[in-house]
Design brief:
The strands form 2 sheets. A 4-stranded antiparallel sheet has the order 4-3-6-7, covered by helices on one side. Strands 1-2-5 form a 3-stranded antiparallel sheet, with no helix packed on it. With 355 residues, it is of the alpha+beta class. The model is unreliable at 254-266 (pLDDT under 50). The protein is built from 12 helices and 7 strands. Helix content is 39%, strand content 17%. A hairpin with a 5-residue loop joins strand 3 (293-299) and strand 4 (305-312). The two termini are 32 Å apart. It folds into 3 domains: 4-169, Orthogonal Bundle (Sec63 N-terminal domain-like fold); 178-230; 236-353, Sandwich (Immunoglobulin-like), CATH 2.60.40. Helix 2 (17-31) runs antiparallel to helix 7 (120-150), helix 4 (50-59) packs across helix 7 (120-150) and helix 11 (209-216) crosses helix 12 (222-230). It is flat, with a radius of gyration of 22 Å.
Length: 355
Amino acid sequence: MATTMQEAAQKSTRPNQAEATTEFREIQDRYKLAQKTFQSLLKISPGPDRRTVLETACSSTAEYAAFPIKQAERAFFRHINEHTGIPYMLRENVSQPWHKPFLLIQIQLQGGPLPNKLTHAARKELLGDRGQMFFILDRVLRCLVDILGLRRDGRGVIAALDVLRSIKAGVWDGNENELLQVEGIGAVKMDKLASAGIKTIRQLAGLQCYHIERLLSRNPPFGQEMVLKLKGFPLLRINIDVLGPFKEGQAQPGAATSKLSTLSTNTNTLWMTRIVLGYENEEVPHWKKKSLWTTFVIEGEDGRLVWFWRGSVKKLENEQTMIVCLAVKKGEKLGVVFACETVVGTTIRETLQID
């Protein structure tokens, strides 16, 4: 996801066919996917949900032909599909190469152990292939986000970012197992915390070190070490104010961070809007010793992409203020989603009404 989506959300008109062809070609070149893969991704339906995004990302990828389901793996993958409670079961015989990443990523996001249906040699070989399969899936999903963004499919962009975030975090966004992202928290400790009403990392980060030790029956310095880990968990915040209709000839504020969205139509009005993005952490947040990126999406009532911004969390240190013009109808309710790109539990969802 380079600047393609951000630029698309700031153009005065929809790209003509020649421009669109050029931009789609740039997306394909950026992610270096096979022609067959890219053409299949272009066929994704408008406004896809999370299942459609994940299924399309796996089934469209010609590169997965290099990872067929081996004879020794068939019982393993059938068990995942039929007996592990994954959210998106296959409705066909488990046999195709794309079934492998589709099922493997879901069992990983469940947070439980792999089924005991493989020999030691087969398990070792599968785990060796898993890293490469997930690397390909990461590129495909990012490509799909850009495709949906260029089409101005806000609903699809949000769903694709949800899937990407979940895979990078290792747990499904919105499920009650987000605590598994924390190093040192496994299923047993997560259950202990849940029984005490602590189900999110934000809640856990708000506890004193001795409370953590008491809840988890651990001795010092476990609690202090946990507090230090949680200190970098991003606590995002947003503030949005609709300033009023944009009037022709009106001067736009000259802040360097200001951007003007002119996705205008015959039925929409441009509304001046102030967007302030930031975080509550005392220092620039980081997670697992990695720098973080954030995405901010505004979706119209009809699912169209109204606004998109992607930026490093470092840019939010003194708050990121943007004065934008949103092409929307009076009275329209907009969906707002702000989240870290790779960390579950950071998502802020709000509704913005244009009055």
